[in-house]
Specification:
homodimer, mainly alpha, two-stranded antiparallel sheet, 5 helices, 2 strands, 3% strand, elongated, DNA-binding
DNA sequence: TATTGACTTAGAGTAAACTTTAAGGTTTAC
DNA sequence: GTAAACCTTAAAGTTTACTCTAAGTCAATA
């Protein structure tokens, strides 16, 4: 069992964000101590891991919420969930390919400017002589 | 020479966004017809290409604006621009590596659910018999 | 027992990057 | 020559994902 503070440390999400996610339905209601404090289970941490994974690959909180709701509805929704993940996976791959291309352009520009800088500094050095 | 509409079509940016970028200083003031209409040059298109490249690799408009301003200041700022691009390149590579790891997790989850779906449908088929 | 940190709800505030609206002027195709 | 299409600026509005504040109560630790 983990306090909200523990979970914040482990996930890198602020306590505000953790409560916000729960309120928005990204995370099932977390169990409480008799006094009403949140007690996160290993399962909750696992769920948060998947949420972060989806979020960090560009899925919107809205879509993640949809996925989580489907999960809660049980095996009836397996097909839909598989479909959702498959589409997400494709879009991530596509985005990574795009990124790769953009990265090549950045690298090209960087080399171009590096070369220009070298020439410029050579020139300055010669002028100072 | 290209109208704002042409450029919108070529870049995928809306005419609103093109004007917004110019107003915000991401793009140097575009030349005009006698009537005041924007006339984009090939150079402008080139500049927009770099802007989109940086934006699509996660650079904020603020940072892009900084980069563009440095470019306008000439060779004095070459070192700074090289530094900026180098740092950006590193951050893109790091993000891509992270994405790769997250993608593996998504793939794993997808396979897990696919298998579960297969088992579930088998079960249903057997029940229907 | 005092202090620190947790809890609640509700709602306001923030930042980025657009996106739309308002009110009007310019071009061009028929 | 006129209507449709396209242009202008300035400013307000939208969306996403938080982030913070308020105001009051409860729990745990030194």
């Amino acid at each position: 069992m983990y306090s909200i503070q523990d979970v914040s440390g482990r996930t890198g999400l602020s306590t505000h964000t953790l409560r916000y996610y729960e309120k928005e339905g990204l995370l099932s209601p977390v169990s409480r101590t008799p006094g009403g404090f949140r007690q996160y289970t290993d399962e909750d941490l696992e769920a948060l891991g998947l949420i972060c994974c989806l979020k960090n690959t560009g899925m919107s909180l809205q879509e993640i919420t949809r996925f989580v709701r489907l999960t809660r509805q049980g095996d009836e929704t397996l097909r839909e969930r598989v479909e959702l993940l498959r589409e997400h996976r494709e879009s991530v791959i596509q985005r990574m390919n795009e990124m790769q291309k953009y990265l090549e352009k950045v690298t090209w520009k960087l080399n171009f400017f590096s070369e220009k800088l070298r020439a410029y500094e050579d020139l300055k050095a010669r002028q100072e002589q």
